[in-house]
Write a structure and sequence with these properties.
By secondary structure, the protein is of the alpha+beta class. It is built from 3 helices and 5 strands; from the N terminus they run αβααββββ. α1 packs antiparallel against α2 and α2 packs antiparallel against α3. About 8% of the residues have low confidence.
Length: 154
């Protein structure tokens, strides 16, 4: 009976935490006064680069590492002890596993990876900020086009 409650609690926790994870492959648009969000009709646009800012890519995780780590930790903790001790070990294992899984996911990417926020004034007067991993030969004042969430010279 207690084992089925523990398993049900683990499944419920996994479902709740799964709702927090994002596997969105669309580009990230910063919301700092420039147009945010993603619009299929605006997947391509022409404009001029107003500024380029460098930021660190650290600390961005999808949450998948925490979910997997939490489930593995909870399952491992459930194998320890009996009664109330088993429940405590399951909870402690889940919390520790989630923390370790998130840390592993954060370290999976090269440490100190730089991201670039490219602020573009579009020809129609809108402003858009696109965050990407490289700027190659992009410079302030260049005429550019935005295609599928990336900025290119033209």
């Amino acid at each position: 009976m207690k084992a089925s409650r523990s398993i049900a609690a683990l499944v419920a926790a996994g479902a709740i935490l799964g709702g927090c994870a994002s596997n969105d492959s669309r580009p990230y648009y910063a919301n700092d006064g420039y147009r945010g969000g993603y619009d299929n009709t605006a997947s391509m646009g022409y404009g001029t680069i107003e500024s380029i800012q460098v930021s660190s890519g650290e600390g961005r995780t999808s949450g998948a590492g925490a979910i997997v780590g939490g489930l593995v930790g909870a399952l491992a903790g459930n194998q320890v002890g009996s009664g109330g001790g088993r429940t405590a070990a399951t909870v402690a294992g889940g919390v520790a596993g989630a923390a370790i899984g998130n840390h592993v996911e954060a370290n999976r990417n090269p440490e100190g990876q730089q991201m670039y926020s490219v602020n573009v004034r579009l020809d129609n007067g809108e402003y858009r900020t696109v965050v990407q991993d490289s700027v190659y030969d992009l410079r302030v004042g260049n005429r550019v086009r935005i295609v599928d969430g990336r900025v290119y010279r033209y």
